[in-house]
Amino acid sequence: MKEFKPLMALCPMGKFVFSNEDAVHYKKQIQKKLTQWGVRYIDLEGVLKDGLVKDQSHVDTVVEHFQKAGADCLFLPHCNFGTEGAVGMIAKKLGIPTLLWGPRDEAPLPDGTRLRDSLCGLLASSKVLHKLGVPFTYIENCRIDDAPFRKGVDTFVRAVSIADTFRKGIRIGFIGHRVDFFWTTIINESELLERFKVEILPLDLARFIEAVKDRAVKGRKGYEKEVKKIRRNCLIEDLEDSHIVSILAVRDQLLRLGEEHGLEGFAFLSFTALLDAIEAYSMYAEMEVSEQYAMGHECDIHGLLSDVLLRRANFNQSPAFLTEFTIRHPENDNGVLLWHGAAPPTMCHPESSIRIGHHWILPSPVSGMVHFKLKDGPITVARFDGDGGDYQLAVGEGKTIPGPDTLNNYLWMEVDDWPRWERILIEGPFIHHVGMAYGHYSEALVEACKYIPGLRPIRLNKS
C-alpha cells in the first residue's frame, strides 16, 4: 500500500525581546522529537537566521519556502514568545492545517526576569488566527517531554492525512450501478465533486466482465499454480478450478484499473451480472483487493469514503473494512455485531481459517462467499454521510468481545453506551454500513473536520 504521510512545515516562532538562546534551544529539541517520532518535516534552517521567525518581514520568505516544498501542514511552536502578526499572515497565506503549541515556561530567574513567555505569546497568536479566520489545532501548553505534546502532534498529523482526502481530492471507480432496492446508497455525485473533490469514475461493467474473461483465458497457466496454493490454505466448497481462476482474474482486473486510473477505491456491483458471468461469487477477489484499495460493497460510495478516511487515519499503513451494524449482542446490552463480506485477510483472527463457500442466506448452488472471524483489538468506526446538503461524520470507538459464531466476516464490539449510539445513528443521516479499522483514531477524525468545510463531526461515544 502507498503510505500517506503529510509533510509538515516547521515554523519556529521567536521574538526579539526574549532570550534568543532559549528559543534556539527549544527549536532544536522540537526538531529532535519530530525526527524521533517519524514526522516528515521541512524547517527554516538556512532560510532565516537561527531558523526562527522573529519579524513580520520574514513572512513572504517563509511562505515561498514552504509552498515550494509542497508542505501539507504548518506547525508554529512558540519557542520564546511568538510574533503574532507573522503567525497570522504565514498561516493565512499558506492556507494549510495549522498546529499551535509552545513549551511550558520555567520559573522566573532569581532576579525575577524570565527567558520566555510562551503561554502569553500563544494567547496573542490564537487571537490573530481567529481574527483572520484561520482554523487551527491547539496542544496544551506543556513540557516537551509531556505526553500531551506527543499525542497532540500525532493526532494533528493524522487529522491532516484524513482532511487531505477532501482538501486535495480523490478518485474512486464505480463499476456497475446502484441496485434499485438499495435506496440507502443514493448519493449526490455532483455535490461530492463540488464540495469534497471526490471524482467518481464510471467503469463499464460489461467491459469489465469481458476483460475478466480474457484475463482468465490468457493467464490460466499462472492462475492454476495459485489455485493449488489457495486449496492448500483455505477450505473450499463446490468451486471448480475454473471458477477460482475467474475469481483471481476479477482481482487482477480490479488491481489493474486501480493503478491505471489512480484510484483509492471501488464502488463495486459484484452481483448479479458478474456472478452470472463467472458462475461464482467474487468475494475472494474483493477480499484481496481490499488490502490495497477501499471497497464500497453494494455500491455504497459514502461507505467507501468512510473506509478511505480510516485508512488515511493510519497513513494507509493497514486496511479498513466496510462492515455493518446488524444485531445486538444476546447478553451484553452494549455489544453489537459488526458483519459483512470480503474483509481484508490481514484482519482474520489467528484461530480462524478462511472458508470459501455458499451464501449464508440466499438459496443458491453458487459458491464463492468468504467466511472467517475477525481478529481482536481496539476498534474505530466511522460513517461519512449526508442528505440535503448536510454532511456529517459519525465517529466512535469500541473493543472486541466474545460472542456467538456466525458467518461471513464478523466480530462482536462493545461500546460505552450502545442505546446512545443506536439513537444517533437512527436519527442522523446514517445507515447500517460503517467503516472500521483497528486502533484509536476518533480524535484525529474529529479534528480533521476542522479542515473540511461543510463536514460536521458527530461523536458516538459519550466522551
In short:
It contains 14 helices and 19 strands. The protein has helices spanning 20-36, 59-69, 84-94, 118-131, 147-167, 189-196, 205-218, 220-233, 241-261, 273-278, 283-289, 301-313, 418-427, 442-448, and strands at 7-10, 40-42, 73-77, 98-101, 136-138, 170-175, 198-203, 235-236, 265-268, 294-297, 321-328, 335-340, 355-358, 367-373, 378-387, 390-401, 409-414, 433-438, 455-459. The strands form 3 sheets. Strands 11-12-17-16-15-18 form a 6-stranded antiparallel barrel. A 5-stranded parallel sheet has the order 2-1-3-4-5, with helices on both faces. The protein has a 4-stranded parallel sheet with strand order 7-6-9-10, sandwiched between helices.
Fold and architecture overview:
With 463 residues, the chain is of the alpha/beta class. It folds into 2 domains: 7-145, Rossmann fold (3-Layer(aba) Sandwich); 172-459, L-fucose Isomerase, Chain A, domain 3 (Alpha-Beta Barrel), CATH 3.20.14. The chain is built from 14 helices and 19 strands. The strands form 3 sheets. It has a 6-stranded antiparallel β-barrel. α3 crosses α4.
